[in-house]
Design goal:
A: fumarase, five-stranded mixed barrel, 24% helix, globular, B: four-stranded mixed β-sheet, 17% strand
Chain lengths: 176, 284
Amino acid sequence: MIKIQTPVSEDCIKKLKVGDQIEISGIIYTGRDAVLPKLAKLSQAELEKVKVDIRGGVIFHTAVSPAGIGPTSSNKLEIEGSIGPLSEKGMKIHLGKGALSIETIDILKKNNAIFTITPPVTALLTAKIISKEVALFPEEGMEALHRLEVIDLPAIVAIAHGKSIFGESGEKLDGK
Amino acid sequence: MENKIIIEKVAQCLVEASTRFRNDQIEKYEEAIAKEKNPEANWVLLNILEDARVADSKKIPLCDDTGIPHVFVEFGENVSINTEVEKAVKEGVRVGLENLPGRPMAVKGNDIERIEQSAGLFTESGALLPAPIIFKSYNGKGLKVTIMMLGGGPEIRSKTFRVFHKHDSINVITQVAEWAKEVSGQLGCTPCVPAIGIGRTHYEASVLMLEAMKDGDLSKQNKYEKLVTDTVNNSEVGPLGLGGNVTALGSFIKVGQQRASGVRIACMRPGCCFDPRRATILIN
């Protein structure tokens, strides 16, 4: 088990490989279909203005609701489409579930970013939250960009450095 | 039959469906853990079983996608169904969602706004309306209410389509098994439990699929259900897509009336690692 503290360094990502079990602690962000395309469009200056720092960051593909947290399918069009732009701006770990396309595997490699997955075990994952607040887009309710402080959030490295745990035949980015 | 009792019992049923594994699910997971050779995959299976234990003891949701309530009301000979019964069942669903609490995912607005999700969401968990309730008579007494909570992941991968049977049932089952196998890799929340309905129309096939989920038992699998499960497991997608022997825990098939034709309509919902999230309650 590899312990990871946010913000995540370039070196830390370089050392991680597909199949590694990790536990993430520190500040992370959450978002899914509704906010990730909006977040991906913001420039570095706009992000600084709203005090959202994604450099060395972790984005968990989940809503934050009274029911708890749990990964949604990351291969949905709006979520997978955000992985490239966010990685280019410094997001290091994308956390969700499901196989991603060859194009996304390449984009992650190019930006020294990784994709990790975790089972949808809400009762266990929700217990890892120390604090939570809405960071941006409050109008989206539970789908707003949330800032969470977590301890030992469990995951497995699924895509790193051009390799995928799902094999090399990732499907095209078609929203399926 | 007092409406107050129906409301209370239906609310309890919804919470149980959302927080508790039945024995056949626990047994299948224990079997899968013993069978699964891939250590990462085993880690996933152990986590799911532990999640079920914690969710049951704390009465909190198994999954944060608490799902859309689908309600099946079976009524015995001594019960007459009227608008009051339907109102009480709906109120029971609302109370159950508030108690759970369910994910507040009811979408506001007119037809267009709801499609676009442009008018926001209701903040109350109980604002989420159930799918149209199915009422059906049964050989028994009182009301038998089954609540199933259908998560969004499997809905993205489900399929209802025609199959040419060529006068051999295996042609239909193998085709549908291939559909389930095809989507298992993209599902994300394996091991799954595919549910299949085979009927005359798309509506009928979908209802039969739901009935398969309602009645299915993972410890009682017929040869057609085993064929679907084995086909999906041959994909070696494994838990969470990490590779391994266990991609499906089992399958449920319900066959309804058939049309005099060379075509069958099949509905396949792949399910997820918590499916079928269901509970049944008897109200006398």
